[in-house]
Amino acid sequence: MQRGLAGFVGGLIGGLAMLIWDQIIFATNISSVNSVGIMSRFLGGISPVSAWIIGILITGVVGWLVAIIFSKEFPREYISSGLILGLILWVAMNIVFAATGTITPTWSMGVSSLIVNLIAHLLTGVIITYTLWKTRVKVVGQ
User: Fold this and answer.
1) What is the C-alpha to C-alpha distance for residues 29 and 86, in angstroms, rounded to an integer?
2) Cα–Cα distance, 32 to 23 (Å, whole number)
3) Separation of first and last alpha carbons in the chain
4) How far apart are CA 138 and CA 71, in angstroms?
5) Which pairs count as long-range contacts for 98-102, CB under 8 Å and 24+ apart, including other chains?
6) CA separation (Å) from 8 to 11, 34, 66?
7) Interior CA angle at 88 toward 81 and 86, to 5°?
8) Domain coordinates of the chain in residue numbers?
9) Buried b vs exposed e over 70-85: b needs ≥16 C-beta within 10 Å?
10) What is the Cα–Cα distance from 121 to 58, expressed in whole angstroms?
């Protein structure tokens, strides 16, 4: 499997896990973050099914970009790399939301929403880095 494809697959799996986690926690009223609803609103009112598909594809692209940007094999500490990646993704998402002014960043939605959404992003980061580490794809030319 090529490195970019491994990153894309890791992103797809991570995105699916993140959305499932998010929707379960939202449905139980533990958090007020509804990623599918937010994405639907952000993209002009698309259907929830389309929001799921686009959300999963976006994280797939993020995984692909991570694989391309970090062209060396991941170290054995894929968990720490993944946690850092997840934190970066969470901060970047909230900055985009804050900059657009149309969506409330999760750090402004209360402690439970902040924690749940941060955990979702950390999980996604670990899944992406684990997929890259597990496939142990060699970079072409090495």
Assistant:
1) 23
2) 10
3) 16
4) 9
5) 100/42, 102/41, 102/42
6) 5, 24, 9
7) 55
8) 3-135
9) eeeebeeebeebbbeb
10) 13
Kindly give the interhelix angle for 48-69 and 111-135, rounded to the nearest 10 degrees. 50
Predicted TM-score (pTM) of this structure: 0.85
Tens digit of pLDDT at every position of the chain (142 positions): 688 898 999 999 999 999 999 899 989 988 888 888 888 877 788 888 888 899 899 999 999 999 888 766 655 688 998 999 999 999 998 898 889 887 788 888 888 888 988 999 999 999 999 998 888 645 555 4
